[in-house]
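Fold description:
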Amino acid sequence: MKLHPDEVDIDETMVARLVARQMPQLQGLPIREVRSTGTVNAIYRIGDAVYARFPRVHTYVESLEREWHWLPRLAPHLPLRVPRPMHLGRPDAGYPFVWAVFDWIEGEPYAERDSGVAGAVAGAVAGAVAGKEAGVDDEQDGAVKPQNGGVDPRVGGPDERDGAVKPQNGGVDPRGGGPDARDGAVDGEGTGVVDEREAARSLARFVSALRGIPAADGPPAGRPPLRDLDAGLRPTLRSAPHDVNVAAALTVWEDALQAPAWSGAPVWIHADLLRPNLLVRAGRLESVLDFGSAGVGDPATDVIAAWAVFGPEGRDEYRRFLDVDDDTWRRARGIALQQAAAIIPYYRDSNPAFVALAKRTVDQVIDDFAS
């Protein structure tokens, strides 16, 4: 099933042709699509050691190129494993965009041990896979119609990863679980993270290290100021009354709008710290994926993991370790709410696993504000 109306066609046969023409050393290795919650790239594993990422639409090409350029410069400074770029492919064999090959990192998308949400996400992915294998598509050509009044919530501009399409709903880009390896792939049952507090400290160390990298020449990143997103968020929330507590979410949003806008020195941010972009192995946080949105901007952007990734215990530890002040916390809570709320109507039918994670984030935001 396609996730966007303008998504290009790609399949294992096309991937095999591209690999044979541009990476002949990999020719003949088994190729399989990686089923995931990802919305930006189609992911194909090639053999056991590498995987390839293919932007689904032309506006996602910039994020892949951004990651290819910047990740090797950032990686040596970071305490967690990150993907290693291996090959940048060119348009060919019927595929119109650049594509890239990275080393495969073993692990599972972040979830708590015995998490009910993790089970729901895995089940939703499995359901989507079964539907595709049965030939079920929303449209004759496989494209999915947006579920929020026909609006595609992808955005462009220097504050977002694509830099190509105009904001359609107040600057909202709901993508998360972003373009990197697996994009939330479910490759089998796992135990999840054992100690949420330790995972929070581990991610906070990563964020601190990233912030410490000189930012003078980094590309702009992050979302526009919250007030610039207000006009888009309110109708988005009201379009999902059966999915979220709209009144409670708007109360959180009003509070976030009162927080001072960020005006400090720019720092490096990952800008998409969602569960599908964090890999767990042997019960511990192993790797951070998806640097297609990375750049310099408001440090509150990377605080969204407090709600998008962690529960109350991990959230408290994450905030303590990063020493987040009240204004940054309120602003970050608004960023997390805005991103998650935009996901729900757009991907309600096409990507239910991703929507389940977004609903969880909204619930965490509301509960945290009320506590």
Notes: Residues 326-346 form the longest helix (21 residues). The first strand starts at residue 31 and ends at 33.
